[in-house]
Structures are given as C-alpha cells and as structure tokens.
C-alpha cells in the first residue's frame, strides 16, 4: 500500500489500467531517468480507498477516473487551463508536468499498473465516474480519448479541411474520429499495421494507407490534395516511429536523436503552406532532426502539448453520452495485472490484433 | 568592457513608441486550449498549495527556483547510477549533458538491477519478463524463426572463434 505524502493525497485501489503507446517509449529506454523499480502506468481508474485531511471533493468508496497528468489547480499554468503543464508537481523537470509512472523526468511518481496508487491533489483532476458510464469507457478518458480530441482541437480544423493523421495507434484512431467532430471534410490515416488501418477505416471512418506502399509521403499527400498539401497534419506517433531506417538507427538504436521523428518529418512536409501541424506523439527531451526550414518557408503553425485532460472531460462526457465517441471499442485485450509482461509484449510486437490492452487489478472491482 | 549581465537593462514598455497598438487577443495561436481569462497580471504568483515534506532524496532541475509542492518518492538515486544522476542535475534541461548522463545512468541502473537481483539470490525470469509466453501463443512461427536465426548466428560465431584459436596454435 502506498504512503500518503501530502494532506491533499488520496490512495486509490486500481480497477482498470491501460498500457499506453507512450509506455512503450519507457519500455524501450527512450525516456531519460527511467529508474529500475519504478511502476509504470498513467491511464487508470479506481476506488478511493483513503483521503488526506485536505481533500474535500472525494470520499472513500468513490469510483474515479484519474487523468494522467497531476495538477495543483492553482499555479500560473493551471489557472490557464494548462493542467498538463502544472508547475507544482515535478521537481526533476520544468518542461514536463507531473505524470503517473512516467519516469523521474515526469516527477518520479509511481504508476497505476498496480493494485494501489498514490494520487496527489486528489480533488483537482480525479473525476467521479457518472452512474451511466461504463468504467471501460471511463479509463479511456484518462488519456487516449482526450489526447486524440486535443490533437484534433490543436489542428484548428475548419469545416471541409483535409486532415492527415500519422499513426493508427489508439491515439491516432481517436484523433481521426475526433477530426470529424470539428468538421473535417476528409480524414486520412497513415500507418503500416494493416489490422489497425482496417480498424481505423471502419471506426473513424477514414481513408487509410500503408506507408510501405508509398514511395514519397509528401508527393503522395500532395497528389491526394490537388497538389497543395493537407490543411492539418497530426503526428500521433512520436519517438517510436517506423518508416525511416536512418531515423530508426540514429534515434532508436544509437539514441543520438530523441527517438525517430519520421512521422513529424512527414507531417511538416505534407502540410500545405500556412497549414497546421499538431503533435501529440511523445518525444524525448533531447533533440530531433526535422525539416524546420520548411516550417519557416511554408509558414506552418506547430501546435503541441501534453493533453489537458481535466479541461476536456466535461465535453468528452457529453460526446460519450451522445454516442459520438465509443471509447471502449478500442479495447482489444483485457487481462489481469500478473499478465502485464505479456500485455506489453503483445502491444509492442502488435500481436493478436492488439490495439488497446487493459489490465484489471483487484479483479476490476 | 561592461558586462551585460550586471547592467540594469529592463525597459519600461510605456516608454516605447507605439507599444501595444496592434495588440489583439484574437491573435493567439494557442486558442482554445490556453484560457487567459482572469490572467491580466500574468498570474506569476499564486497561492501555493501546502508543501510535501521530502523524506527521500529528490533531485531538482536547476531551472526550478524552489521545490514544487508535491513530487514522487519512488526509487531515490542510489549506487553509481545515482551518483551520475546527481552530477546530471548540475546541468539544465537545456544542456545535452544533462540528458545524456541520465540516459547513461539508466543503462548502468539496468546492470545494477540485475546484479542486485542475483546478489539476493533472485534469478531474473527473462522469458517471462519479456512476454515470450504471448509470443509463443500468438506468433509461434516468428518465435521459432528468431530462435533459429539466433542459434545459427551463435553457432557461426563459435565456429569462427574456434577456428581462430586453432590458427593461433
């Protein structure tokens, strides 16, 4: 059982905990200051087991979804709704907020792929799961759904826009789904994993393409868009991108870049002049080789951030209730906590049609 | 030559000709995820939450002017990797040495972890930890192929080594 460290802490008994694509960056050693012995897991929900004397809004027995970012609700950034950039939760870095189970670069917190977890500032971000909501939907609202939604939101999508999403992982699929909510006219998803592309084609729905069949991404997207380029490109891949032997060698093997930035490279070069590139794929804190000169010459606006989950939850609850988004449809594998190594391997190696694995510690109760 | 650092250089915006004539809150590319409502004074100070009492060693970025209100307490720095991490935190997040030392510390920490297990009589169950059960269940052919390639490469390496030894004799 974790220890209470602050009067506004709670201890939560975890009922559901996802494995996230960004956990794979930790798993593969791409995030600096990942210490042996840290528990991973930043997407979880659970039952409040204990609350500190400073917690006013939650009580023992409440079933809550816990946004992946820890936020004080009072600092310069939280006041602006930038709950993913809180300044009071991460001593190890100023560029990153506090994230459960995401290395000491994100504050050194234990994660939710566990039976119990310490939740700081428990009455700021953790949110009661409404009676009408399936907890399987709720756990997807801790990161995947809001991150996909914010990816589309940051794209500044206008009615009729062509949106290209790089990456058909859970976040990419959700970004493509949400692009329609903002009025996209066309949604294109790029990946190389066929079962995921087929899922995206049905679920989003979207036009899908395998980048291995495309000789030159920028030329291909231009041909798809009357030679102008896409209005909005979303990088929903981040540091672990496949598709370039050079980026893989320098970024993923030799660690001379903060991972492979080929998806971002494609996004910049496939966007139209004056277009917008929205980044939600996670990169490490060092540096990446990307065509920044083209950003200047084309007048690209780059927008990126860790998701401000708390800010988006009210709207996303409405979308789930109205049936605009079906989060749990992405869950392909449900397993016990003791199966976590298999879950990581299946997700990482993309076995058995894995899109989103969810762990059920404490039997999911 | 006077130092720019020690010289008082702050400019009062009110003294600048044309200050703010084109200011337009709608010209904010961060809209709508950044809400500046009620932020006229830039909110640079705030009522801080009560502060967590450190009970383990917590490394602090030199870009922070104080310890944040709360922090994680998992896995304090220790051993050789911990010493490297302490040195790394002497450099800012903007300095590559900070991150490269942390990455190096992570690799050393991996070796420390395995040695620590062995010293306590725990033999790491690598196949289980690497999820090979799932690989066997869902990708038998791939696993057999990988094992065959690994076995062939090992056999080749052994053969080359034994040849070299024979040649030396």
Sum up the structure in keywords.
heterodimer; A: 365 residues; alpha/beta; Quinone Oxidoreductase, Chain A, domain 1; Rossmann fold; 2 domains; 7-stranded mixed beta sheet; 6-stranded parallel beta sheet; 12 helices; 15 strands; B: 169 residues; mainly alpha; 44% helix; elongated
Describe the structure.
The complex is a heterodimer of chains A (365) and B (169). By secondary structure, chain A is of the alpha/beta class. Chain A has two domains: 10-143 and 308-364, Quinone Oxidoreductase, Chain A, domain 1 (Alpha-Beta Complex); 145-304, NAD(P)-binding Rossmann-like Domain (Rossmann fold, 3-Layer(aba) Sandwich). In chain A, 29% of the residues lie in helices and 20% in strands. Chain A is built from twelve helices and 15 strands. In chain A, strand 14, helix 12 (340-349) and strand 15 (356-359) form a beta-alpha-beta unit. Among the domains of chain B are: 53-124, no CATH class; 125-169. In chain B, helix 1 (79-88) runs antiparallel to helix 2 (96-119) and helix 4 crosses helix 5 (140-168). At the A-B interface, helix 4 and helix 12 of A face helix 2 and helix 4 of B.
- What share of residues of chain A is helical? 25-40%
Query: Strand content of the residues of chain A, in percent?
Result: 15-25%
Biggest chain pair interface: A-B, 66 and 63 residues
Structural Rg of chain A: 20 Å
Oligomeric status: heterodimer
User: Could you describe the largest sheet of chain B, including whether it forms a barrel?
Assistant: none
């Amino acid at each position: 059982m974790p220890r209470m460290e602050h009067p506004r802490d709670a201890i939560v008994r975890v009922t559901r905990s996802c494995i996230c694509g960004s956990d794979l960056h930790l798993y593969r050693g791409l995030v600096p200051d990942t210490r042996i012995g840290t528990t991973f897991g930043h997407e979880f929900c659970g039952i409040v087991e204990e609350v500190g004397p400073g917690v006013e809004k939650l009580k023992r027995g409440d079933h809550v979804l816990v946004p992946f970012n820890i936020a004080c609700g009072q600092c310069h950034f939280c006041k602006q709704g930038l709950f993913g950039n809180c300044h009071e939760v991460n001593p190890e870095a100023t560029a990153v907020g506090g994230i459960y189970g995401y290395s000491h670069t994100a504050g050194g917190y234990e994660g939710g792929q566990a039976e119990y977890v310490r939740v700081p500032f428990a009455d700021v971000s953790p949110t009661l799961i409404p009676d009408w909501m399936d907890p399987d939907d709720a756990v997807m609202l801790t990161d995947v759904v809001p991150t996909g939604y914010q990816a589309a939101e940051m794209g500044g999508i206008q009615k009729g826009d062509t949106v290209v999403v790089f990456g058909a992982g859970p976040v990419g699929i959700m970004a493509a789904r949400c692009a329609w909510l903002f009025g996209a006219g066309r949604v294109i998803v790029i990946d190389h994993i066929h079962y995921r592309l087929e899922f995206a084609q049905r679920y989003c729905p979207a036009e899908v393409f395998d980048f291995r069949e495309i000789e030159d991404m920028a030329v291909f997207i231009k041909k798809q868009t009357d030679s102008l380029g896409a209005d909005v490109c979303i990088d929903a891949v981040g540091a672990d991108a496949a598709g370039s032997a050079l980026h893989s060698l320098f970024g993923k093997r030799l660690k001379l870049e903060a991972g492979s930035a080929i998806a971002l490279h494609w996004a910049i070069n496939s966007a139209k002049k004056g277009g917008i590139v929205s980044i939600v794929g996670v990169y490490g804190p060092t540096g990446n080789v990307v065509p920044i000169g083209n950003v200047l010459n084309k007048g690209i606006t780059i927008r990126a951030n860790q998701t401000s989950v708390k800010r988006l939850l009210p709207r996303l609850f409405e979308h789930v209730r109205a049936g605009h988004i079906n989060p749990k449809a992405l869950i392909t594998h449900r397993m016990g906590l003791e199966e976590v190594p298999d879950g990581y391997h299946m997700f990482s190696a993309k076995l058995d049609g894995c899109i989103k694995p969810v762990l059920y510690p404490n039997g999911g109760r | 030559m006077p130092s720019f650092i020690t010289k008082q250089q702050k400019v009062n915006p009110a003294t600048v000709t044309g200050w703010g004539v084109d200011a337009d809150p709608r010209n904010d590319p961060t809209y709508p995820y950044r809400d500046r409502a009620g932020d006229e004074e830039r909110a640079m100070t705030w009522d801080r939450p009560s502060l967590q009492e450190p009970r383990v060693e917590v490394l602090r970025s030199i870009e922070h002017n104080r310890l944040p209100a709360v922090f994680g307490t998992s896995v304090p720095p220790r051993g050789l990797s911990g010493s490297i991490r302490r040195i790394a935190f002497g450099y800012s997040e903007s300095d590559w040495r900070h991150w490269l030392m942390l990455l190096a510390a992570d690799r050393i920490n991996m070796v420390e972890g395995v040695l620590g297990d062995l010293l306590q009589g725990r033999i790491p169950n690598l196949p289980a930890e690497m999820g090979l059960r799932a690989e066997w269940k869902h990708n038998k052919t791939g696993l057999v192929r990988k094992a065959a390639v690994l076995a062939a490469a090992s056999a080749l390496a052994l053969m080359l080594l034994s040849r070299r030894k024979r040649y030396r004799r």
